[in-house]
Amino acid sequence: PEVRAVVDTLADSVVMRQAFDLLKSDQARFVQEAIQLSEIPAPTFEEAKKAQAFAALLRANGLTNVRIDSIGNVIGVRKGSGKGPSIAVIAHLDTVFDAKTDLKVRKKGSLLYGPGLTDDSAGLAMMLSCLRTLNQSAIETKGDLVFVGSVGEEGNGDLRGVKQFFKDNTKISGVLIVEAAPLQVIGIMNTGSNRFQVDFNAPGGHSYAAFGQVPSAIHAQGRFIAKVADLQVPAMPKTTFTVGLVSGGRSVNTIAPNASLEIDIRSNGNAELQATTKQVLAFAAQAAAEENKRWGSTSLSVSIKQIGARPGGMTPPESTIVQTWMAAAEAQGVKPMLLVGASTDAGVPISLGIPTIVVGFGGKTGGFHALDENWDPTNAYKGVQMSFLTMLALAGVNGITQPLIQIR
Questions:
Q1: Which residue of 107, 161, 281, 344 is most buried, as measured by CB atoms within 10 A?
Q2: pLDDT value, residue 361
Q3: CA 148 – CA 125 distance, rounded (Å)
Q4: Residue 241 pairs with which residues in a beta bridge?
C-alpha cells in the first residue's frame, strides 16, 4: 500500500501526465531510432561502431555526461539533486548476428522485421525517448539516472559489459534491464549458466596401421556426449544442457588426435546449476578413462576450460522494486504478471544483491535470434510509460515524491 500511494501520487501529478503525453507523441521517433541503431552491425566483441552511434544520440538528446568505458560500455548520467538513489537503466548493444548479416529493417503491415531490432536496439531507443521526455518536461529527479548500453550480453560475451560496469560503479541502488518483455510482464528471475570448452587429445595414428594401439579423441568425445544426452535434470527449477558445437579429427583415415566441443548448462536454481555442472564435468573424465581402457592406453587426456559463467538468482516478488513496477502497471490500467527464467544482464546485479527487474519497451515481439526477428510497435509507448513511471518512482521526483528505493 505504501508503494502504491507513492506511485499513484506521481502518476496523477500534472508533470507526469504531461510526460505521458510526450512519450506518446514521441513514438514515431522512438521507433525510427530503434531502426537506426539496429541497422548498425554489432556482433559480440564488435560493438564499437554502434556504441559510438548510441553515445552520439545520447549527447544529441541533451545528455552531456556521456562516456565509453574501458570495456566498451556507453554510460550517460542524468544527475539528480544529489539526495536520492542512483538508478541504472541498461540495454545491450550487441547482437547474435555476424557483421555480414543483412540488417536492413523491412516493413510488412504493422510488423517490422530486422535482426537485432528487438534484441536489443529498441531497448536502447527507449532510453532516448525517456531522456527527451525528462528534458522537455523539466523533471528533476532526486537520484541520478544512469543510462547504459552494455557490451557482451550475447553468446560468449559472458556479460562482460555489466560485470565491468558494476565493478566500476558500486553505488547503484536499483536496476532496470530493458529487453523484449510483453507489456504486462517483468523478469524477476535470471537463469544462470555455465559454459565449457572440453578438449580431448590423443597421439593419433593411421586408421588401419595404428588400430588397436591408440585411443581416439573423437570416440572419447562421443562417449562424453552420449553420457550427457542421457542425463536426467530437474523440471523445476528448469534445468537444461546442450552440446552446441563440436569439432575435431584430421582426416577420414586418421585415428583422431583431437576433438573439441562447447557445452551450455543452465538452471533457474543455483544449487541445481552447480549439481548439473559437477555431473557433466565428471562425465568428461569418465569418457576419457573409458576410451583409454578400451585400447589399453593412458595416452588420451581431457582438458576443460570455462568459457562462460552467467550468475542466476531472483529478485523477491515482495521487494520494493517489483512492487513499484506492479503499482506502475496498475496505475496505467495494466494487469501485471511475472516472468521467470530468462538469461540477461540482470543476473549480475541480482547476484550482487542489487534490486533488479527486467522491463519491456512495449509492442509485440517475436523471432528472437532469427533472421525474421520482428516487432509490432503499435502502442509501444504504453510500455515506455510504465518503465518511465517505475524509474522515476524509484529515484524520486523533486517537489512530488520521495525515492521508493534506499541509497545503497
A1: 161
A2: 95
A3: 12
A4: 265
Q: For residue 54, give the nearest of 45, 70, 67 by alpha carbon.
A: 67
CA distances from 183 to 193, 258, 336, 385 (A): 26, 49, 8, 10
List, as one string, the DSSP characters of 177-192. Answer: EE----TTEEE-EE-E
Q: How confident is the model at residue 237 (pLDDT cuts 50, 70, 90)?
A: confident
Whole-prediction pTM value? Answer: 0.87
Q: Are residues 186 and 232 in contact, defined by beta-carbon separation less than 8 angstroms?
A: no
Distance CA 274, CA 296 (A): 33
| Tens digit of each residue's pLDDT (9 = 90 or more) over 170-193 | 999 999 999 998 899 999 988 999
Separation in Å, CA 46 to CA 41, 93, 98, 378 = 8, 10, 9, 31
Q: How far apart are the first and last CA of the chain?
A: 23
Q: Using CB atoms within 10 Å of the CB of residue 316, give its burial: 0 to 12 exposed, 13 to 18 middle, 19+ buried.
A: exposed
d(CA 215, CA 205): 9
The three-state secondary structure class of 54 is helix
- The grid coordinates of residue 167 equal 565493478
Closest to 198 in 3D by CA, of 281, 286, 275: 281
